Amino acid sequence: MKWIVAIIKPHRIDSVREYLTQANITGLTVSEVLGFGRQKGHTELYRGAEYQVDLLPKLKVELAVDDDKVESVIQAITHGAHTGKIGDGKIFVIDLEQAIRIRTGETGSKVI
Amino acid sequence: MKWIVAIIKPHRIDSVREYLTQANITGLTVSEVLGFGRQKGHTELYRGAEYQVDLLPKLKVELAVDDDKVESVIQAITHGAHTGKIGDGKIFVIDLEQAIRIRTGETGSKVI
Amino acid sequence: MKWIVAIIKPHRIDSVREYLTQANITGLTVSEVLGFGRQKGHTELYRGAEYQVDLLPKLKVELAVDDDKVESVIQAITHGAHTGKIGDGKIFVIDLEQAIRIRTGETGSKVI
Amino acid sequence: MKNVKTTTHGFALVGAMLLFPFSALASEEAVMNGADTAWILTSIALVLFMTLPGLSLFYGGLARSKNVLSVLMHCFAIACLISILWLVYGYGMAFGDGGAFNSIIGGGKYFLAGIGTESLSGSIPEGVFSMFQLTFAIITPALIAGAWVERIRFSAVLLFSGLWFTLVYLPLCHWVWGGGWMAEQGVMDFAGGIVVHISAGVASLVIALVLGPRRGFPTSLMPPHNMTMAFSGAAMLWVGWFGFNGGSALAAGGGAGFAIMATHMAAAAGSLGWMTIEWIRHGKPSVLGIITGMVAGLGTVTPASGFISPLGGAVIGLIAGITCYWAVIIIKQKLKIDDSLDVFPVHGVGGILGTLLTAIFASPAMGGLGYASEGMNMVSQLGVQFLGVAGAVIWTAMMTWIILRAIGMVSELRVSENDETEGLDVTCHNERGYIMENSQY
Amino acid sequence: MKNVKTTTHGFALVGAMLLFPFSALASEEAVMNGADTAWILTSIALVLFMTLPGLSLFYGGLARSKNVLSVLMHCFAIACLISILWLVYGYGMAFGDGGAFNSIIGGGKYFLAGIGTESLSGSIPEGVFSMFQLTFAIITPALIAGAWVERIRFSAVLLFSGLWFTLVYLPLCHWVWGGGWMAEQGVMDFAGGIVVHISAGVASLVIALVLGPRRGFPTSLMPPHNMTMAFSGAAMLWVGWFGFNGGSALAAGGGAGFAIMATHMAAAAGSLGWMTIEWIRHGKPSVLGIITGMVAGLGTVTPASGFISPLGGAVIGLIAGITCYWAVIIIKQKLKIDDSLDVFPVHGVGGILGTLLTAIFASPAMGGLGYASEGMNMVSQLGVQFLGVAGAVIWTAMMTWIILRAIGMVSELRVSENDETEGLDVTCHNERGYIMENSQY
Amino acid sequence: MKNVKTTTHGFALVGAMLLFPFSALASEEAVMNGADTAWILTSIALVLFMTLPGLSLFYGGLARSKNVLSVLMHCFAIACLISILWLVYGYGMAFGDGGAFNSIIGGGKYFLAGIGTESLSGSIPEGVFSMFQLTFAIITPALIAGAWVERIRFSAVLLFSGLWFTLVYLPLCHWVWGGGWMAEQGVMDFAGGIVVHISAGVASLVIALVLGPRRGFPTSLMPPHNMTMAFSGAAMLWVGWFGFNGGSALAAGGGAGFAIMATHMAAAAGSLGWMTIEWIRHGKPSVLGIITGMVAGLGTVTPASGFISPLGGAVIGLIAGITCYWAVIIIKQKLKIDDSLDVFPVHGVGGILGTLLTAIFASPAMGGLGYASEGMNMVSQLGVQFLGVAGAVIWTAMMTWIILRAIGMVSELRVSENDETEGLDVTCHNERGYIMENSQY
Ligand SMILES: Nc1ncnc2c1ncn2[C@@H]1O[C@H](COP(=O)(O)OP(=O)(O)O)[C@@H](O)[C@H]1O
Ligand SMILES: Nc1ncnc2c1ncn2[C@@H]1O[C@H](COP(=O)(O)OP(=O)(O)O)[C@@H](O)[C@H]1O
Ligand SMILES: Nc1ncnc2c1ncn2[C@@H]1O[C@H](COP(=O)(O)OP(=O)(O)O)[C@@H](O)[C@H]1O
User: Fold this and answer.
1) Treating both helix axes as pointing N-terminal to C-terminal, what angle do E227-241 and D34-49 enclose, rounded to 10 degrees?
2) Contact between chains at E333 and B45 (C-beta distance less than 8 A)
3) Half-sphere exposure in the Cβ direction for F362 (13 Å, CA)
């Protein structure tokens, strides 16, 4: 199993979830994060004082997937999150050793 | 060492922390996340317009633990978070290569 | 590649980012978390009812880095986040198998 | 009408002879006073402002975020419901002439029929008087909402409020201000110590006992989700209370000025009292503490406000701040009764305290403006006040209990465990209070 | 002046003879009435309070958090701009004597020149009357902001509001309250059904059509980001409306009292109406529903408020709550017109409904206070009201469309796609609404 | 009378003879005017509303979220403390008869003794006048809170406010409105340019210098944590200011109407002025900018508001918006003085500007209502105004510095570094402003 972490633009989440559903993914976890990267931020102004904001709102999508689904999940996220502009985000893949469903105590790939 | 990620129902956190304390776990990190899975969400209604919310508030608990504690931690979280209803959440185990305490620069399992 | 997760005190983020920039790190992701550890929390009081808060606001910084940068990144974070007081936080290192840039589809260490 | 008029609110009744000889005279001749009218029109706005948004925000901020909308909904729906009931029969039952039964209850004027733009109540148009009184009828059941938050079913809120208004508020209001038996006895209640605060406070205690505590109480604490909201509401209450107590003079004059001064000083002293005791006992004074002290001071001074000196107001406020602090500790921490937002210890205890202290501080010897009925002295008035308090406490407790039992026979009072855990906003009202930033996808 | 006085707001004009013989008499002798002045001074504060912060918070809470400041900015900047235009020429065009063209438009009194502290308008100083009217001129274009939120350019807001105020609001205001042709016809509009609500509502519909929907509408829902904020704003609107309708009596008396009662009952009944229909159709009543019903009730009762009984107000409110609920469904869900915060279905439909119902409920047979012009009956008055509605709808729609086209010729009306996605707060105003806790590094 | 009536507020005292021959006369005959009383009762509510919740929210929203409650606490506790001091000796020292020392300070009337419901001050009950004045005494030290936020100890807040009120506010108030030397010189300050804004502004500058900047200033920016809260507070300030300036006419008439018009136009023009300059210099106008311009306009017009035309108000507002913008830039960005919420550049600079401009715009040649003292012309009045400004600036700066030094000798002024980093809400008050959704476990 793999643990996939994707950083995406917030307004792409609906589209990402659609593609993931098509790829038969039924579980994921989302969190709000702030991202720093190549994408330029914006300036804020408070009573004449300028304030450079370069931490931009992003969403982090995390999912545990079976090894054989890794490719299709990466495809799905890439399609769903793509706008072609800087700041579209990245996908990271980490090895996942074990998964347990709390309700049943089941383990392994049937859990995810 | 292992990096354990648990997604649980928000109101179970107190109970989870109690069980973890009993298992001699003294450090962890919590974040608010939104989860999508088997559990059905709810409908919201704004001036006659229905709005299906299927991303549900969950908590993510992350902890670094020594290899020999993995089992007891999984037990603790399972007990603490269990309600028997769909949406209780999952536990994921990832291999952790290194840990460093910022204050002292110490490394390894004494850090956690 | 490695996936580095650092838990730090919120007000150290600027300094951490400065050190990381010096270490030529140009991408990272930050999230707000609550941490539980050795550091004592505070008490809150509502109409005579005391309320012990031991989950403290922390920031989680996540970055994917090339293997050869791991050491300098750990150094940078340590320097940036260090105040010498309990609760300065920890750094965790996990193996990262793959990274993909959504915009271009590129993979591997040139992505990060 | 005369009868009624003179027994109204600002206690013009007795006060008539004593304090406002001129306006009493004028009322014989049924002359409208534009200035008094202007001030009461303003007071109508101020007192409605106390409930919407004042009290709603005060209570909403003190709840947890998953229940904030349900609290706002309770206050708002109660305001709407009571308004319609007031139109239909409320005003008539409270202030209409009950004939032979007038000591017990009023009657007539249903649908406000027979009241025209020219009808007067004292020196102001009767429509203005009726609207002013309605704002009091609104805030009283809304105050009770503090006792049941975070667990009650919405339909029970509506049922209870309608019945309680009819069976508790209207009789009490009639007894004290509409020429009923308390008025006959000479009970002094300038702006609602008995009618508003004791009734709401005692009802809250009964509700807390019948309904039972919120899940998790008292082990897990349920801190206010938004103290800035509670603060805003509290500040609005302070401002609106000028209309509540000042407007109860029913005239724009020195009497209203004095009532406002006493009210203001009680708020200030109540706040400082609570703040000080918190500072001493816990090492740090809190915003929740200072604003709760303010409400305690205001609630307590209410029955006395038009009869006392500003200094008297300050002393009453100080006593209130300290007493109500301990009352909260006893009820919530010691007795473990989940009167969730502390309505009884603040309003109930404050109302009782204030009604009794009225007999003390109205005394000219204490700088007060004197007693309402002729021949009264501090001791005899204190007796009368005790009588009023006892009558109100007993009637309210009894009727509240009966109403709750009756509703309980036709439907559940509480939401399900699951709904309580998930929060009433989503489960009862299909909405969430806050949907911030990124969450908006 | 007589002319103007008699044509003012509360329809004192016609009403003068009918309803306020005394004050009409007084105005001949030009005597200031301090009490009336005190009440209108208060009403000025109440009506400004409706826009700032009332309406601003109501609308701001309904927007998404990335656009909340832009909504507040629109309301605030409109208030400032209209104030200055009012000073320069607005008051004169609305209430000055237009001479031969007076049926069409007024004139004179530019920069409020010639008005002194002693000038009177009826029984109140003219400066007070002018300020009171200004608060109406402010809220009307601010209401329209609900139609264009989350996508309009800020410069277009200013341009549009200035032009629309000049070409739509001022003429309508003059026609109805300044002695123009509608007044001559005997159109009854106590506090702005035509002048405020129909004009704002119809303009909103046109804007929604010309501007097009927000990106993502109607597939992705855009729920209110802060219902507690919207609630606060709504509650403030209710309170402020006492000044809006009650102040329109332009006197502190039974007339103002009745207007406030009718207004209050309409708010309550509108709220309960919407709540009930939601409860039946969707199983759960919501805060957004109940407060929207309140606005519907208030907007609808506005033109009638000074002519009807409290019970009449309640009935109008109930009709309004139900009608406007369906209007929202039809416009937004069925026709898929993105009048974003539903200004037309609530204010436009409500204004039309209320203006027509005025002819019904003003009838003494319905408990009303009678018609403004002599010799009117329900049918003839209904005809006149239809005429007023038709005139207002046509003029507003036509001029709004022309103004938008004209602005569209010199600049874009909408922000770029990117800016809309990112949110107007940061892209147009360089600010964010909320920067919480940890985020502060 | 003509001249004078309009020139009131304090002024009554000295003014009594000088400015209000009529009302002075009236007071001889001791006739209360109900209409004036109704309006001042309303104004009391409006001006308290400016501080609670108005200013509190304005300031609270501008702070960082970890300090928001401490800001609210400062404003609230100050309001309570000053109220009690006012009761004990404040009113007497400001408005009592100081006998031989009356040019310097008043006296008597401690605990408001000797004031009854029948006592008059001009045409209104003295209790009403005293309460109205108290609301000014509350807001002035509360304004200063903007200078010390996010780093001061709470006990220092209380100590400072009590001393400053006694040693700075009361003397200034007496000098200008209580018959002291400034009144004798003919200084014109309608509603508090000197007494409120200059005093608060100058004190803030001294505090910022003595206390030192917040940790991190000026390298790290400290943006407002909740602009919607700041907006709400600002809007409430605007509305409440009608009572502040309009109520200072102490009568319900054309004078109050004119004061409100001038006030309103200054707010509008100040807002547009600041907005425009921001738009030109930074490409985007902001909500914080427009509301700061509003406060600048309002603060600046305050001393002039009862003496000028509405157009004069607009011009003063425009000048204020632009001048205060630059003052903020200079103090904060150039001089790097951490007057945290910019009290001096907005209120101090605005107050000085407005006090001087009063001499210009009160001139009948500028459409003004004329000078208060006989025989004055623009130049001589300007001289007198300079004198008033200089006296206020020097006295305030000196005494503020002494008070701070004195407090500094008995305790720390600032919290510890750690507490400042963690935030004052938790460290000083054991509370948090917001505890949202999931966080509630
Ligand atoms: N090395 C990294 N480690 C963790 N997160 C990263 C890293 N680099 C980028 N990110 C995340 O990805 C987001 C997008 O990256 P950015 O460089 O702006 O654009 P792009 O994805 O088009 O290269 C950033 O905002 C940040 O959240
Ligand atoms: N494959 C997955 N990867 C990451 N998170 C998951 C995955 N599946 C479920 N989750 C998380 O676990 C939560 C609970 O899962 P759900 O399917 O609703 O119930 P259960 O845990 O009872 O099977 C989800 O809300 C989501 O946050
Ligand atoms: N075993 C752990 N797993 C995950 N996070 C941890 C662990 N131990 C500590 N943390 C995080 O690190 C933070 C700091 O730890 P703490 O024990 O308070 O101080 P120190 O870092 O000085 O040892 C905690 O608040 C928590 O967020």
Assistant:
1) 170
2) no
3) 33
Q: Let me know if residue E228 belongs to a domain.
A: yes
A66 three-class SS:
coil
Q: Whose CA is nearest to atom 8 of ligand 1?
A: C27
Q: A56 CB under 6 A from ligand 1?
A: yes
CB contact under 8 A, D427 and B14: no
For chain E, what is the domain count? 1
Question: The tokens of F23 are what?
Answer: 């009302």
Task: Write out the residue range of the structural domain in which residue D374 sits.
Answer: 22-429
Q: Which of E82, E8, E389, E71 is closest to E230 using CA atoms?
A: E71
| Atom 7 of ligand 3, nearest CA residue | B27
Residue of F199, F140, F180, F186 whose CA lies nearest to F358:
F186
Which residue among F220, F427, F430 places its CB closest to the CB of C45? F430
> Token pair 């995406």 is at which residue?
A8
Cross-chain Cβ contact E441/C32 below 8 Å: no
Q: Are D183 and D13 in contact (CB under 8 A)?
A: yes
Tokens of E225: 């980001």
| Ligand 3: centre distance to CA C10 (Å) | 13
Asked if B14's CB is within 8 angstroms of D220's CB, the reply is yes
Dihedral in degrees, nearest 10, Cα atoms F8, F13, F17, F20:
30
Dist. CA F162–CA F88, nearest whole Å: 12
Least distant ligand from the CA of B64: 3
Topology of C2-111 in CATH? Alpha-Beta Plaits (3.30.70)
Q: Which residue has the tokens 């000889």?
A: D21
pLDDT in tens, chain E (441 residues): 233 333 334 444 333 333 333 443 444 567 999 999 999 999 999 999 999 999 999 999 999 999 999 999 999 999 999 999 999 999 999 999 999 999 999 999 999 999 999 999 999 999 999 999 999 999 999 999 999 999 999 999 999 999 999 999 999 999 999 999 999 999 999 999 999 999 999 999 999 999 999 999 998 889 999 999 999 999 999 999 999 999 999 999 999 999 999 999 999 999 999 999 999 999 999 999 999 999 999 999 999 999 999 999 999 999 999 999 999 999 999 999 999 999 999 999 999 999 999 999 999 999 999 998 889 999 999 999 999 999 999 999 999 999 999 999 999 999 999 999 999 999 999 999 999 865 433
ipTM for the complex?
Answer: 0.95
D168 and D203 in contact (C-beta within 8 Å)? yes
Output DSSP code: residue F416. Answer: P
Instruction: Show residues of chain C in contact with F431, CB under 8 Å.
Output: 44-46
Cα separation, D193 vs D178, whole angstroms: 15
Report which bound ligand comes closest to the CA of A69.
2
Ligand 2 centroid–CA B82 distance in Å is: 14
Query: Which H or E run includes D127?
Result: helix D126-148
* CA distances in angstroms from C78 to B103, B108, C4, C31, D27, listed in the order given: 8, 15, 12, 18, 82
CATH code, D335: 1.10.3430.10
Taking only residues 402 to 431 of chain F, the set having a beta carbon closer than 8 angstroms to any beta carbon of chain D reads 428-431
